[in-house]
Amino acid sequence: MAFQHQPGTAMQCLSIPIKLAKEVGIDSEGREVMKCGFKIGGGIDQDFTRSPQGYTDNGIYVTEVYESSPAAKCGLKVHDKILQVNGYDFTMVTHKKAVEYIKKHPVLNMLIARKGVTHS
Q1: C-alpha span between 56 and 46 (Å, rounded)
Q2: Strands (DSSP E) along the chain, which ranges?
Q3: Long-range contacts at 86-90 (CB < 8 A, ≥ 24 apart)
Q4: What is the pLDDT of residue 75?
Q5: pLDDT tens track for 72-99
Q6: Longest alpha-carbon distance in the chain
Q7: C-alpha to C-alpha distance for 57 and 25, rounded to whole angstroms
Q8: What angle do CA 59, 88, 92 make, to 5 degrees?
Q9: Looking at the domain assignment, is residue 79 inside a domain?
């Protein structure tokens, strides 16, 4: 079960593969940046009991997806739990490390868990 998972313990769940290719955009200072179009919350360094979204574990969750963004186009949804990005385990990661890893790569090959999805 992907939700209510304790970091460091074995987990069996259905994972959905999502490939997100970032798009070039311009930031507020006129610099070219790679944009993915989503925000995350959570991490092993966060207290999930204080999550405004009501998450039940320390996983990395998608908390916002911007309309018409690469994230929206590839099918990422709010409340998706990110299990892995480019082969890197996101079940045992701090919030800061997850943000840094996502920012670093132009293409994100993710495995996510989605509540209510029990088979493909």
Answers
A1: 12
A2: 16-21, 23-26, 32-35, 38-42, 60-65, 81-85, 88-89, 107-113
A3: 90/59, 90/60
A4: 97
A5: 999 999 999 999 999 999 999 999 999 9
A6: 45
A7: 33
A8: 35
A9: yes
What is the amino acid identity at position 60? I
Quote the domain boundaries for residue 24: 16-113
* Reported pTM: 0.83
In a domain, 30, yes or no: yes
**Distance from CA of residue 18 to its chain's centroid?**
10
Report the residue count for the chain: 120
Amino acid at 2: A
Cα–Cα distance list, 100 to 6, 77, 97, 103, 105 (Å): 23, 20, 5, 5, 9
The radius of gyration computed from the CA coordinates of the chain, to the nearest angstrom, equals 14
- Average predicted confidence (pLDDT) for the chain: 89
